[in-house]
C-alpha cells in the first residue's frame, strides 16, 4: 500500500507523533517523497485539524569560538523554524514529525535500528562460520522463523539483505503507530524479550526459552543468548524420546524456572493461537503489502494497548535509569540495609544472588542471633570482645566471667556479628589475647 | 538505492593483540625497550640535524665532567609533587590525611629529568617543562654545568617517523568517526542518534555524500561514557541491576551495529568505561557480545589503540585515554594539543605505564609510532577539534578530537583524499 493511500484511508494515527523516518521504514520511500506526500496531506487536513509539526533543518553554521563550519541536522519546532532558517547557512527544511496538536498521548522517545537503506554496501558478506550456526540455532528446519530472523538481522548473503528489507513492512504493518510501539518495547522494557524474537519462533520451546532467559537479564542470560547456538544444537536431540534426561532438565530449568513443564506446554499452546498471525505475515512478507486491511485492523486494536504500555514502560525505564545514574540513591539505601547485610554476609558467605533469597537468609540469621547472643560473645568494660568458644551452654560462660562485669547488659549490647567477625577479622587479636589470659587464669 | 564506495582496507593492529597474559612482570622492560627502540630511531635523525660534530653520549660517559657539549638520548621523567602515588594511597591505611584527588597535577615547579639506561640528569634550559610528560623519549643537545644540570639548547623528537605519500584519487572517500555513544544514557539523545543512523544510510537527502562514506569507526565508550559509581555495598541486587543494564545496553548496541553494518563497514573500539579490559592496549570486544552484528563481515571489533589503512591513508587512533591522561599531567590546554604532542613525540601513550594503565610488555613497546599517520584521532573528547599538522619533510597529518556523542551529538567526518575534516551535528531542539 502506498503512503498516499494509507493517509487517505486514515490508517496512520496522528494522535501520536509520527516520524518521517518511521514512514521511510514503512513504505520504503525516499525522505523527500515522504515529505512531499505528507505535506500535501497535511495541507488538505489543516483547516479542520491542527497539527504539531517538527522540521528537520539541514545547513551549515559557524562553530562557537572558531572559524570552522559545522554541518547541522537539527529537529526544530514549527514555531522556531524561521529563526533557524535565518541563522543557518544554506538552510533547507523538511518535515520530521507530525502529530495532532494536543494529541491524546504524550509522545514517546523513539529509536530503532534502521532497516531501510538508501546507500548500502554492494556486498553484505556474512562472516565465515556464522552462516552455519544460524539454521541450527533452534534445532529446526530452515523454514521456521529462524530464517527470517537471520535475514532480518541482515546476516545473510546479498540476496537476503533484500529480503531483510522487505520483511519489515509486514512486521510493522501499514499503520504508522505500530513501529513506535514495537520499537519502544525493546528499548524501554527491561529484560523483556524483543518482539522480533517473539515473532520469529513462537512455536519452538527452545526458542521461547531464549527470550525468557533474556528476561532474567543476568550475565548468564547474556552468555546464553550469545552462545545459544551450540546449546540449542545440543537441545535438539532432547526433543526426541529421550527428552527427560537430566541434561535437558537443566537446560530448560533456568528460563522457565517458575513454570512446570505442563504449564509451559499450555503457554506455548496458547501462544501458538496468537502468534501464527504474525508469523504467517512474516513469511508472506517478501511479497510486499499484499495484506492490507485485515492485518491493519488487528494491529490497530492491538496497538492501542501496546502503545500505552510501551509508553509507561518507557517512562519507568527513564526514571529507573536516572535513578541508577545518580549516586544519591545508593547512599540513601545504604543505611537501611547495610547492617542486615553485614550480618548475613558474615554469617553465610554463600548467599544466593536473589534479593528475596537474601532476605530469607537474613531472617534466619536473626533467629540465630537470638539464640547465640546469650552464650557466645560480649564486650567487656574496656570494649574488648570476649568470645567464649563453648557453644553448648551459657552457664559456664557466666561462671568464667569476672565478677565486675554486668554480663547481661553487655551481652545484649554486643552484636553477634561482631563476635562472629571477630573470629576471622582483625578483632580476633583482642579476643585471642583475652582468651589467652582467661585460660591462664 | 545506490552502492557505497569501496576502499582497500587493512587492519594494522595485530601488534596490539595480546598473545599472553603475564601480569607478573615489571614495567622496566617496557621503558627499556622504548628507550632502545627510540634511540635506534632517533640517532640518525639527531646526527642529521646536528651533524656529526656533536657526539651522542651516554650519561655514564660524562663522568661528572663540566662543559661537555654533546647529545643525550633518554627518557623524560617528570618529577611532580602531586602525581598520584600508590604509596600515598596506602598511607590512608595508616590513618594519615588522604590526598585530595586532582584533575591536573602539573605545576611550574615540576622537575624534568632525563634518564638513560643507567643514570639520570636534571634538565634545564630550552625545555618546556609544563608541556613535557613522563615517558617521552627525546634527544637533547646541550652541555653539562657545574651544578650537575644539563643545559638543553635544542631538543629533538621522533615525529612519528616517515609518512607514505597519500595518493589522491578524484573520488571522495569519507571516514566517519564517532565516540561516546553511551548507550546506557541514550534515552537523553534518542533523536540525535536516530538522525545519525539515517544520515549514515543516506536517507536524509544526503545520498551522494553517504555513498562516499567508506567506514565508520566507533572510538570507545559505546556502552558507558562515565565511571560507574562505586559505592561500597554488599547489596547483591545493586550489582545485579548494574550488570543487567550493561547487558541490555550491549544487546541494543548489537542490534544497531548489525543494522549499520549493512550500510557500511563498522569498526568498534573499546573505551575507558566499556565492559572491556582496563589496561592499554584494550582488546577487541568478544564477538559473543555482538551476536547479530558479528555475523556480518562488515562489522568488526578492534583494539584500542587502532591502526588501519584505507587505500593509502594510514589511520591511527585511540579512545582518548592517552589524551586525557596527558592533560592531567601537563599544562596543555586542549585535547588537540595533547594529541599533537603525542604525534610529535612519536608515541601514542607516553604516560603509560606511569599514570596510564598498560600491559607489562617485556619485549616491545607497541605504542611507538613508527610510521606517521595521515589521520590521527582521539575519541571521547569534550568537544570537536581538528587541525592539519604539518611536520618535517612535508608530512601532513589530520588531527581529530572526536567529541563524545552523548554530550555533543556530533561526529567527525574526514575526507581521506584531501584530509579535510568537519563536524556534523545532530540535535533536537528542546521543547
TrEMBL record, chain A:
What is the protein's name according to its record? Uncharacterized protein
Acidic residues: compositionally biased ranges: 302-314
Compositionally biased spans, kind Basic residues? 390-402
Question: Which parts of this chain are annotated as the region Disordered?
Answer: 128-441
Instruction: List, as start-end ranges, the regions of compositional bias called Polar residues.
Output: 145-154, 237-247
Task: Output compositional bias ranges, type Basic and acidic residues.
Answer: 174-207, 260-272, 351-366
From TrEMBL, chain B:
User: Which superkingdom?
Assistant: Eukaryota
Just give the chief location class. Answer: nucleus
InterPro entries, alphabetically? DNA_pol_a/d/e_bsu, DNA_pol_D_N, DNA_pol_delta/II_ssu, PolD2_C
Q: Where is the DNA polymerase delta subunit OB-fold domain?
A: 26-155
Keyword Transcription regulation attached: no
Q: Does the keyword Nucleus apply?
A: yes
Q: Name one GO cellular component term.
A: delta DNA polymerase complex
> Which family does the record claim for this protein?
Belongs to the DNA polymerase delta/II small subunit family.
| Name of the protein in question | DNA polymerase delta subunit 2
Organism field: Drosophila rhopaloa (Fruit fly)
At the highest ranks, the source species' classification is: Eukaryota, Metazoa, Ecdysozoa, Arthropoda, Hexapoda
